[in-house]
Structures are given as C-alpha cells and as structure tokens.
Specification:
490 residues; mainly alpha; four-stranded mixed β-sheet; two-stranded antiparallel ribbon
C-alpha cells in the first residue's frame, strides 16, 4: 500500500475547521479588491516577484489572502496519479472546484508527504513564515503552494491562516499554467519531487494537450540537457513507458492503480522491460505477453531489483518458480492448483506432490504451464482470502505473496547457476571461435600493411615470434582435443 493509501485510511489527528467555500465571483472580487488596495500604495512598497511563465518573465504583484479564500489545484501534477486512482474522483471531477472535490484534493495534497515531512513544513511556516510567495490565477486557483495552504488550514491562530500569492493576469492560458508549474518545480528548492507516474502523466499532457514537441519537453524538464537529440529520444521513450504501464494496469481482473507502480519499480527497470518486451511483441506476441506477466507478478510480490528481475523471462515461472513453490511448507501442497488455469487442473484426490496440472509434461523437456495471470489476480486482489480451486483450503494473500516471492528469488538463483554451468560447458567452443576470428583479423591486418615502409624487419620479427607461439598453443589444443576424444587422432 502506498504512503498515500495509508494516510487516507488512518484517522487524522487534526480536524480542520469547516469553512464555507466562497463563490468564484466572490473570490475574483476579493482578488481585485486586494490588488486595488495595493495600487493605492507607492510602487516601491508593492511586493512583486518575477515568475517564469513566459519568455519575458513578467513581474507579478503579490497579495495576501486567507487560506480558505484560495482554490487547491486539482490539476497539480504532484497528485495527478493519486486522484486518477481514487474512486471518489470519478464523480467529483465533474465539479473539481466544488467543496467535496476540494476536500478530496486537500486529503491527497496532505498525503503526498509523510506525516513527519508535513509536520515539519507546518512548524517551519509557523516559526519562520513563508519564504517565497505562491502563485495563483486571477480567479484564486493555486499553481503551486498547495501544500503550504493545506498546512496553514490546520492552524488555529487566525493571524497565521493566510498566504502570500503572486497573481497572474487574466490573459494566462492553460498551457501557460502547466509550464509555470513545471518551471517552478524545476527550481527544486525544498519541494517534493514528482513521482514517476505523475512525471509521465505531465509529459503526456504537455505532448498531447499542450502540443509541445519532445525537444521542448526535454528542455523544460531538463532531460539530457547536454544533447537535444538524446533529450527528444528520452521523452519519446517515456511516453512509451507510460503506455506500457497502462498495459500492465489492465492485466489483472481488478485493474491496478497507477500509484502501484510508483512503489515497486523505477524508470530504469521500465526501460529494461521495454527493451526486452518490444522486439518480442513483434516476433512472438504470446511470449511478449508471458514475459510481461512474469515481470508484473515479480514486482507485485516484491521482487524488483534490476539485477534480479532481468532473469525473469517468459518461461521462468514454469521452469524455475513453480519447482521452488512446490517446496514451500504452506503453499507447496496446493501449488499446482494455484497456478493452473481454472477448469484445467485435476481434482486433488492424489497425495501432495502428484502433478495436478493438466497438460504438464515431465518427459518431453517442456516446462509446466503456469497461469501467471491467475497468480497476479491472487496477489493483487482486494480480497485477502485466497481460495484454492478444488479444495477446502483458504490461504492468506500475504502468505501466498511471501511464498511466491521466495520461490521467484530461489528460482533466479537456480537459473543463474544453470546459466553459469552452461557458460562453462560452452566456454571451450566460445574460446576457439574467438581465436578463429582473431586469426582472421590478423591475416587481414597483415595484408593491409605488408607493403608499408614502416613495416620493418623488427616489426616482422615480432609478428613471426607471435605466430610461432600461436602455432605451439594450437598444437597443445589439438593434443588436448585428441586426448579427450573430441577429434580423432590423425
């Protein structure tokens, strides 16, 4: 479960006062009133700030508003994925600035930081005040400073329940607001970074809704600033990685939340998956699907290290995971029934250890068939009770996850050992092939330089000595090949 999920389910220690939300027209009038009052003062007493919302970075005027007079931004990319995952948001998003929607946004803004981080921010605001002003539209919609507002809404002292905000002109367009949020985020300061999925969603919005090119997005996000071409390629790749996440979201019967992936994998792991999955999809779609399912099952149970998960391929679950799972004390006796496609496994009338999986062949070298998609359903379902088909057994989901995780981990070790053994067996042939290639290169290099004036007697003697050593070594290899029966005696 995500930090966000835990925070939303825990009882809140502080219940903020319920304040009626003012209307949009009242909010606009309030902003205009404060700006008008500001203009009555000499210009040198105006607080202003430069904001990078256009190339000209205009000077914006700063006013102070009550924290209950501003709107939290439901388009903030720091909580975009969390809102998409929240079932309440589907209906509330129809009126994102209404009180019920704003309360939900407030909860997610608060949950985006750990309780300790949120408490530290609130204490800093109370003791040190607000260092930099936030930014909002002329209608009172925050571009940033959402977390600061939520923190100050939990303060009892009415003198502390206000915030300094720079006001954008009415001419600011939606694309200006998205870019401004991005540029403010890139300034870093002490801000919480976007999660992986929120960053990918931001890139998608800038590309699809704002019509920005991959090069422009890379520049704004400071992706590969040393090379425009690399930056463009990376942005295009990240859009494809978001598509890949959405494919994995739909693999289980109960679709996964976007934030599920934030907790388990990184961009590096997604790149590795994409590198293997994409060519497979073109050459063998069924193997590509199996590989994707194996990857998802692995991260769902907690196996996510790159050096481990790169060994999990389309055949891994049947060849390596299942044999290890069958050794598990708790899950082992019903492992075959758990991994079988419903309706294909025989009834468990035989003792534990007797094969239950229909179509499983031990004598033809084919690995057992594992319904990886079914296992994904088992370990990601909301229902924590796992009923074993054809039995009266009911297992706890966490127990199954632990068993599958252990089986995958052991299976990875077994696969590494097998590969090591195979590498050792293939080592002689590999070395001879490599030597042959080197001899061919030596011949070609000789023909290229033998007429060169600098190819003098000393260089020729050096080559001759190297050749004689090579022929002696070749004779030693031939003797060993005869002695071991690989080649007949001449």
């Amino acid at each position: 479960m995500s930090i966000c999920g835990r925070a939303l389910r825990q009882p809140r220690r502080y219940a903020p006062p319920v304040v009626s939300q003012i209307t949009e027209s009242e909010r606009i009038a309030r902003v205009q009133q404060l700006l008008a009052e500001l203009h009555k003062m000499p210009p040198e007493k105006h607080e202003t700030v430069h904001m990078p919302w256009t190339a000209g970075e205009p000077l914006l005027e700063v006013i102070r508003l009550g924290v209950d007079e501003v709107l939290l931004n439901p388009q903030s990319h720091r909580i975009r994925a969390q809102l998409q995952d929240d079932p309440e948001w589907e209906s509330l998003s129809q009126d994102p600035y209404g009180e019920p929607a704003q309360r939900l946004v407030e909860r997610h803004v608060r949950a985006a930081r750990s309780p300790e981080e949120f408490s530290a921010l609130k204490q800093s605001l109370l003791q040190d005040g607000q260092t930099d002003p936030g930014v909002m539209t002329h209608t009172g919609l925050l571009i940033n400073a959402n977390t600061r507002v939520v923190a100050l809404r939990e303060v009892d002292d009415p003198l502390k329940r206000s915030i300094r905000v720079a006001v954008l002109p009415p001419t600011a367009k939606p694309e200006d607001l998205a870019l401004l949020e991005l540029r403010l985020q890139m300034q870093k300061q002490l801000k919480v970074e976007y999660t992986m999925t929120n960053e990918l969603l931001f890139i998608e919005e800038l590309s699809v809704k704002r019509g920005m090119s991959a090069t422009q997005i890379a520049t704004e996000l400071r992706i590969s600033p040393e090379s425009a071409r690399k930056g463009e390629a990376e942005v295009q790749l990240r859009l494809k990685l978001l598509d890949l996440i959405r494919i994995m979201q739909r693999l289980p019967t109960e679709p996964l939340r976007l934030t599920f992936f934030d907790e388990r994998i990184s961009l590096e792991q997604l790149r590795e998956l994409y590198r293997v999955y994409t060519p497979l999809l073109e050459s063998d779609p069924r193997a590509a699907r199996a590989h994707l399912e194996s990857f998802l099952l692995s991260i769902a149970v907690g196996v996510s290290a790159v050096h481990q998960i790169r060994h999990v391929d389309a055949d891994f679950m049947g060849s390596y995971m299942l044999p290890s799972l069958e050794d598990d004390e708790l899950v082992g006796p019903v492992a075959d029934a758990l991994v079988a496609t419903p309706g294909t496994a025989s009834q468990p009338t035989q003792p534990a250890g007797v094969e239950l999986l229909d179509g499983r062949q031990d004598d033809d070298g084919e690995p057992p068939i594992v319904d990886t998609a079914r296992l994904i359903d088992v370990v990601t379902a909301a229902d924590k009770r796992v009923e074993v088909p054809g039995t009266n057994f009911v297992l706890d989901q966490d127990e199954v996850k632990d068993a599958v995780k252990a089986a995958i981990t052991v299976g990875i070790k077994d696969k590494k050992r097998v590969q090591r053994d195979e590498d050792q067996l293939a080592a002689p042939s590999t070395a001879v092939k490599g030597a042959t290639q080197q001899i061919t290169r030596a011949k070609e290099a000789l023909l290229a330089v033998h007429n060169d004036p600098e190819f003098d007697e000393r260089t020729r003697k050096t080559l001759e000595a190297a050749y004689k050593k090579m022929t002696r070594t070749s004779r030693d290899l031939e003797t060993a090949l005869v002695k071991t029966g690989v080649i007949p005696r001449s």
